[in-house]
Design goal:
- The chain is of the alpha+beta class.
- It folds into 2 domains: 45 residues; 54 residues, no CATH class.
- The strands form 2 sheets. It has a two-stranded antiparallel sheet with strand order 1-4.
- A hairpin with a 2-residue loop joins strand 2 and strand 3.
- Helix 2 runs antiparallel to helix 3.
- The two termini are 30 Å apart.
Length: 111
């Protein structure tokens, strides 16, 4: 039930992205090209001093910023659907999650 409900939900949702507008942090927008600066600086610094920990941390921060920028620009849209279908999807997900939870957290009786 859970797998069927999640599959049904994921086939209903449309995903789009608007990359290029930049990374929005609070009320300010960082241009998308500037998100590459920590990554490039980390790469240069790793080649300059490969045994230091700070270039690796800067490289990791650069990768995290790029991934966060991509994830923050993703938009999910549920097209028009009937209320009956919408309720069936979430009943299947909730009922399946309840059944899975009952199996996972059931007490074992040795008798």
């Amino acid at each position: 039930m859970l797998a069927a409900g999640l599959y049904w939900l994921t086939t209903m949702v449309q995903v789009s992205t608007t990359w290029g507008a930049g990374l929005r942090v609070g009320g300010t927008t960082i241009p998308s090209g500037l998100t590459l600066v920590p990554l490039i600086a980390g790469i240069v610094w790793v080649f300059f001093d490969p045994k230091a920990i700070w270039p690796k941390i800067l490289l990791l921060v650069g990768v995290v910023i790029i991934i966060a920028g991509i994830l923050m620009t993703i938009r999910f849209h549920v097209p028009r659907t009937s209320l009956f279908e919408f309720i069936l999807v979430f009943v299947a997900i909730a009922g399946g999650a309840g059944l899975v939870g009952r199996v996972l957290f059931a007490r074992c009786n040795k008798s």
